[in-house]
Amino acid sequence: MQTFFNNKTAIVTGASRGIGREIALKLGQLGASVVVNYVNNVQQADNVVAEITNMGGQAIAVKADMRRVNEIETLFENAIGKFGTLDILINNAGTVIYKKIEDVTEEEFDNIFACNVKGLFFACQLAAKKMAEGGKIINISSSVTKVMMPTYGAYAETKGAVEQITKVLAKELGHKRIAVNTISPGPVDTELFRQGKSDEQIQSLADMAAFGRIGTPRDIADAVAILVSGEAGWISGQNLCANGGFIA
Ligand SMILES: NC(=O)c1ccc[n+]([C@@H]2O[C@H](COP(=O)([O-])OP(=O)(O)OC[C@H]3O[C@@H](n4cnc5c(N)ncnc54)[C@H](OP(=O)(O)O)[C@@H]3O)[C@@H](O)[C@H]2O)c1
Question: Is 40 close to ligand 1, i.e. is its CB under 6 Å away?
């Protein structure tokens, strides 16, 4: 384990599985105390905590449904109550529906916006109030805001909102030297991505990347490590498209 982030605390939302899990492990490896958020999968969240503590790091799992503001408040209270500070927020929790716009129901629309936009917005709001000077916020968007794919309408709309929140918040938090950035992954091999896709569809998406493969959660965790590093201190309000050349 490295010591770069000793005495720094990170909240990673949706860290029980997929991309969030690898981000939590990466930040733990770099020495941060990590708050592993989840909503359903307590066992998987506990496994992430165990992996970090087995490396000699510190971590706790906190259940909070990012669709509910009072639960987001509890998440932040737990983080700061346990570790005393908040320095890094990775807004990663997200959900998807693959449906043509004409087929999306009101309930599906409200649910995806509640998780991907409302939750992220209010987590940003709490970070604006509680994060230490010089902190880092990273909001996870998606390359689907740049490549127009049928059935991704509702999902792409939520991620467009995420990118706008980043840009405005970066201006609002500059006086505290808090950097706010977006990372936009391309296709990444997780449950969310594989849902409802055939092997042929996955291969054709892999072929769209310059590197000829879909991404791994580790690829995205490595991009996070770059943006939270000291060397990225002058980068704020930007969108890092970590997608293996999938789309420019
Ligand atoms: N995979 C891709 O190809 C891809 C591409 C671009 C962007 N992204 C974005 O990357 C992020 C992570 O995606 P992923 O592929 O890693 O997804 P995933 O494997 O489905 O994992 C989703 C994570 O989010 C958590 N979560 C879901 N709803 C939540 C809620 N209401 N409150 C709190 N946590 C919640 C889940 O917790 P539980 O385990 O407790 O359910 C889980 O930890 C998302 O924002 C997604 O839009 C993914």
Answer: yes
